[in-house]
């Protein structure tokens, strides 16, 4: 699986010590392993955002060890899921799949529907990319987190279920907040909608969505997503001048080079060659 087709949606475990109901003159009793888990998870989230995959794997594995010591099902489920996403981002698919199977088994055992759906969708995305059979996910209930709808939208897009994909991306946008994580989810959903519009040959709509993605990326710092949107704009059949298309393609290539993304770099270089050849023909 190339990194371009990896939908990395990190489920962050935010933890706080329970301090309600105690008298002000009584000491607060805290589980030290909860604080360690919170610290490791926070570092892991930052490493994922900066695409430092080895660091993310290392600290999420430490967080998972803390979760095992805490011995509480919900914490274990989320920690297994986090480490699976770090493995997936690093293209360690066997370990990612094994961790997702742990997530799925625990979620089913303890009847945690949202995490069960999360794990199934991620496994399906991996299996689809590997041309393997996968289990159909039932209709999604309302009120789920944005990352679930994003994964469902991506899977529907890959299966050419365009209407389902649009609906799920729209739900992802509605479920997203206005903080960094929420804006990132919005940008990913908008990019998905741009890809759908391009597939349906609506270049103007694809352009509008992609430009919205770039504005969000400029605000929050999402270089890979910015590169994807720039490359999509450069490849639109109309709506941009030749020079604008070349500029977007060059900017996308520069980002891929800095991110050491050889697949993305190759895609950008191929499009650049095509655009340059086309510009020479029409001179």
Molecular structure report:
The protein has 283 residues and is mainly alpha-helical. The chain has 2 domains: 113 residues, Serine Threonine Protein Phosphatase 5, Tetratricopeptide repeat; 107 residues, Serine Threonine Protein Phosphatase 5, Tetratricopeptide repeat (Alpha Horseshoe), CATH 1.25.40.10. The protein has 12 helices and no strands. The protein is globular and about 75 Å long. The two termini are 40 Å apart.
List the helices and strands and how they pair.
Elements: H1 32-49, H2 53-70, H3 73-89, H4 93-109, H5 113-129, H6 146-158, H7 162-175, H8 180-199, H9 203-220, H10 223-234, H11 242-258, H12 262-281
Helix pairs in contact: 1-2, 2-3, 3-4, 4-5, 5-6, 6-7, 6-8, 7-8, 8-9, 8-10, 9-10, 10-11, 10-12, 11-12
Short structural summary:
Helix content is 71%, strand content 0%.
